[in-house]
Amino acid sequence: MSRAFNFNAGPAALPLEVLEIAQKELIDFNGTGMSIMEHSHRGKAYDAVHAEAVANIGKLLGVTDDYQVLFLQGGASLQFAQVPLNLLGEGQTADYVNTGAWASKAIKEAQKVGKVNILADTSKEIPTNMPDFDALAYTPGAAYVHVTSNETIAGTQIQKFPNTASPLVCDMSSDILSRAFDLKQFGLIYAGAQKNLGPSGVTLVVIRKDLLERAPTTLPTMLQYRTQAKENSLYNTPPTFGIYILMLVSRWLLAKGGAAGIEKINRAKADKLYAAFDNSGGYYRGSAVKHLRSIMNVTWRLPSEELEEKFIKEATALKMIGLKGHRSVGGCRASIYNAVGMDAIDALTSFMKDFQAKNG
Ligand SMILES: *Cc1c(COP(=O)(O)O)cnc(C)c1O
């Protein structure tokens, strides 16, 4: 067996330990004679998995009694709509910050629902950038403020979350549980699982309970947060296998020392990779402004597009997969989520040195 160095942006690398457990348990889960996928979502075997997933995510994120953990479907993209459908009442305004491709998509959906005020737009800036969140003119009485903690394509990341008077809503799809933060600052956070939490098909939502009752009861039942909140995400059949893998990932994260523990590892990985281009005499140039560099999605350019193509091709031949930047921005990108180990960083930085020596 030979595993690739997986730098995919999403779906992305999963911890090998988790895959091995899933493999072992696939055909006979806990001596039940069937796969967890074949169990009823109302039965004892799945119930224990579901409860542990909720409990572990609660521990990892510091969830208190005034918040609720939900496992939904439809990806982060459905949250772009579900957030305003639930929280943006008639005649109200929602504040949005446009920091890039993902924030732009969230804005587009919210505009279909109600009134949106764009506080700042750095989505077209090069090098990629974000505004100073403490200096924005937030709308008094806004229904909520929406931000994107990590722009997966641009490679920028919010370094310090603002303290907003209105509930702060955050798309954390590409950096959830990669670093410690204070949940108390947020009204709602959401993340598609396929970057840092598990496979695609599960969406994590953590909502402050006072926001659960905001949605109009005329909203279709499945779109109301209160529906899944009342039923502990078991109103209908949840994506049971995805939640099972997410539970295994949450166990793995707890063993790493939780968010603070994994953050230490992630910072060491990112520091090493950024140092490789900062020490390249300008051969590799970071795409994001320095103080906003993401520790999850590292973006850079080479001296020409021809060299970028050659770089990606040669890296792929060495089993370093997923280094091509998003088609909308070009260049290179290494997504170094929680499950990407230091061995992958070492392989990449050593290849970068060789490549520069041969093509510099
Ligand atoms: C990947 C990503 C999304 C889209 O997630 P889906 O689950 O595919 O809908 C949204 N926001 C961010 C920041 C992302 O990285």
**Sheet/helix structural class:** alpha/beta
Low-confidence stretches: none
Number of DSSP strand runs: 14
How many whole angstroms does the radius of gyration measure? 21 Å
Task: Using the coordinates above, name the CATH class of the largest domain.
Answer: Alpha Beta
Q: Summarize the amount of helix as a percent range.
A: 25-40%
Mean pLDDT: 97
Which band does the percent of strand residues land in? Answer: 15-25%
**Shape, principal axes of CA atoms:** globular
Q: Largest sheet at a glance?
A: 7 strands, mixed
Query: Remind me, CATH topology of the largest domain?
Result: Aspartate Aminotransferase, domain 2
Strand order of the largest sheet: 2-10-9-8-5-3-4
Give the CATH superfamily of the largest domain: Type I PLP-dependent aspartate aminotransferase-like (Major domain)
Order of helices and strands, N to C?
EHHEHEHEEEEEEEHHHEEHEEH
Q: Tell me the CATH architecture of the largest domain.
A: 3-Layer(aba) Sandwich
Alpha-carbon distance between the two ends: 35 Å
Name the hetero compounds present. Answer: pyridoxal-5'-phosphate
Whole-number tally of structural domains? 2
Helical segment count: 9
